[in-house]
């Protein structure tokens, strides 16, 4: 796709760059890279910067602790020179990094507010919107099934973990929480990140269930909670209600299917969240983000291919999927790790009433699971034409 410079701007060119001239109506040469114009408005530059720091935080900083011995990393990140250098560079780092004395004392990191202007710029980059179709009673707790995962789940992050789209104004009295898979305990740099954003970890098998349970039952800690059922039960059983626990049902494996035009959801055998709703008697809320899969291209990895086989094996070992994706860059539009500027609309469906069954049978789980799929399909069909989804396109389940 040929990118046209913004009106009144001059292209930031290079040998081999191809530009479209409205005056001549012709192309000149062939291009491998399409560069951005010099005179990009500052508003757009700030939008790009906000997304850049977010992508950097997830792809780079989150992988660093897993690649180095935790004790050495803890020391290197908390020496004053490194702390002073790293923190000012990235707004997200300011969210999560406690000072050396704070870390030693176990104090909370000072979070950047959910209403920070950083998230407003990130919302406007795509842009992201949040669509309400029904009221949520602030006296009750809810469990939301979120689809699709996409590559980085950008839309649901903006909508649930920040106030970029005004969640609290659209759903007054509801506090959103996002559960995220963390198979590796991150180092000090990112330990507080999920809590500061309102997210919770659902890592398994780390031998820290006792700690996780105590942290979930107390005030939020700047340390990452490494648990699943304990945290979910704590949120869903909170007295007074007003909590929404979001679970991206397809998880890391579904990210391998994320590419433009894909509407295949990993849901057919994902029934744990349904059983959770039954056990706690909380309504299920279907949520679908239109445009989430349009943000990145992905190297062809169809099931049965050698690449998918390798990705599946790595996922079994590491617990996370490794999609080979690409989008645009900072100063050019042809390649890079930034998502494309494509709109995302997260539609929150009508709650499905669930009667509490402390020990549901498989038949009861299957029945509610099928009801949930039907409601999710109805939500998709009712809104797809508004977001440029072809009329003959329907959800697929695997």
Task: Give the strand order of the largest sheet, numbering strands 1, 2, ... along the chain.
Answer: 3-12-9-4-7-5-6
- Unreliable sequence segments: 1-30, 65-111, 183-192, 201-215, 217-227
Shape: globular
Strand count: 13
What's the rounded overall pLDDT mean? Answer: 75
Terminal residue distance: 31 Å
Helix percentage range:
25-40%
β-strand percent reads 5-15%
Radius of gyration, in Å, reads: 22 Å
Give the oligomer, counting copies of the same chain as homo and different chains as hetero: single chain
Major β-sheet profile: 7 strands, mixed
SSE ordering: EEHHHHHHHEEHHEHEHHEHEHEEHEEHE
The number of distinct structural domains comes to: 2
Structure notes:
There is one protein chain. The protein has 398 residues and is α/β, with parallel strands linked by helices. It has 2 domains: 40 residues, no CATH class; 356 residues, no CATH class. It has 16 helices and 13 strands. The strands form 4 sheets. A 7-stranded mixed sheet has the order 3-12-9-4-7-5-6, with helices on both faces. Strands 1-2 form a two-stranded antiparallel ribbon. Strands 8-13 form a two-stranded parallel ribbon. Strand 5, helix 10 and strand 6 form a beta-alpha-beta unit. Helix 1 packs across helix 7. The longest helix has 22 residues. The protein is globular and about 60 Å long. It starts with 19 loop residues before the first strand and ends with a strand. 39% of the residues are buried.
């Amino acid at each position: 796709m040929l990118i046209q410079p913004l009106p009144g701007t001059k292209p930031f060119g290079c040998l081999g760059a191809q530009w479209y001239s409205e005056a001549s109506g012709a192309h000149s040469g062939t291009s491998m890279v399409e560069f951005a114009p010099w005179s990009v408005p500052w508003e757009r530059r700030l939008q790009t910067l906000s997304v850049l720091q977010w992508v950097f935080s997830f792809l780079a900083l989150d992988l660093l602790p897993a690649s180095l011995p935790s004790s050495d990393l803890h020391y290197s990140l908390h020496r004053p020179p490194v702390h002073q250098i790293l923190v000012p560079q990235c707004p997200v780092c300011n969210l999560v990094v406690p000072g050396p004395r704070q870390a030693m004392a176990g104090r909370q990191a000072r979070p950047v507010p959910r209403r920070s202007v950083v998230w407003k710029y990130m919302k406007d980059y795509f842009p992201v919107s949040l669509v309400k179709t029904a009221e949520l009673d602030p006296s009750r707790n809810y469990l939301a099934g979120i689809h699709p995962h996409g590559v980085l789940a950008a839309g649901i992050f903006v909508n649930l973990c920040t106030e970029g789209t005004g969640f609290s104004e659209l759903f007054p009295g509801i506090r959103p929480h996002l559960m995220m898979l963390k198979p590796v305990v991150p180092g000090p740099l990112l330990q507080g990140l999920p809590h500061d954003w309102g997210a919770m970890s659902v890592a398994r098998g780390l031998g820290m269930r006792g700690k996780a349970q105590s942290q979930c039952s107390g005030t939020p800690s700047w340390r990452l909670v490494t648990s699943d059922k304990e945290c979910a039960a704590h949120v869903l059983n909170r007295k007074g209600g007003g909590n929404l626990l979001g679970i991206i049902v397809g998880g890391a494996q579904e990210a391998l299917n994320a590419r433009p035009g894909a509407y295949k959801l990993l849901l057919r055998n994902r029934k744990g969240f349904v059983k959770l709703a039954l056990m706690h008697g909380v309504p299920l809320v279907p949520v679908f983000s239109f445009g989430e899969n349009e943000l990145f291209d992905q190297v062809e990895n169809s099931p049965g291919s050698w690449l998918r086989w390798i990705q599946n094996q790595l996922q079994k070992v590491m617990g996370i999927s490794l999609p080979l994706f690409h989008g645009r860059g900072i100063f050019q539009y042809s390649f890079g790790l930034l998502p494309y500027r494509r709109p995302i609309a997260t539609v929150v469906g009508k709650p499905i009433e669930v009667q509490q069954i402390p020990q549901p049978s498989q038949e009861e789980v299957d029945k509610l699971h099928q009801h949930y799929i039907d409601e999710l399909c109805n939500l998709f069909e009712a809104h797809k034409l508004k977001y440029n989804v072809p009329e003959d396109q329907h959800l697929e389940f695997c």
